[in-house]
Every structure is written in structure tokens, then in C-alpha cells.
Fold:
Amino acid sequence: PPARGEAPAFAEVQSIISQRCMECHQPRPTNPAFAAPPKGVVLHTPSRIQRQAQAWATQVRSEAMPPNNATGLTAEERGRLLAWVAAGARLD
Structure:
């Protein structure tokens, strides 16, 4: 889906990422399918979320992530994440 609506605050983005991405994309994944973060992508700090925003946004937009939507990322959440990136991926 395209980026929708006004860009959310970073706190909302971080909450979505914590709920939908962190089981795989943290230094020690809790998802038993992964011994290490896939492709080395870790999103456990604001700076890492921001620094890798364009790369993860591409995956979110194409619906490649989460794989088979295993964590239940909603269309609304995808839109919010993409709106944040489109607005410049600001931390403030």
C-alpha cells in the first residue's frame, strides 16, 4: 500500500516495529526460526530504525516483510510506517 495520511510520531512507529518486527530484527531474535537477525537487520534502537528506514520500507511496501505476514502487520500499520518514512523518518 502507498504511504497514507499524516506522518505519525516516531513513538507510534517504534511501537509498531516493536510489536511486528522485533521478534526477528533484534540482536538475539526470539523467533526460534532465526539464530541471528535476518540479513543482519536490527531495529532495536531509534537510530537503527531511522538509518535503515528506506530499506525496511521497501520490504514493508512490497509486503515481503514480515514473511507471510507472520506477525499480523495490518494495512493501517503498513501505511503509518510508510507515511513516516515518506515524511523524512524523523525521530522527533
Notes: The CA atoms of residues 17 and 43 lie 8 Å apart. The helical segments are 10-20, 46-51, 53-61, 75-86.
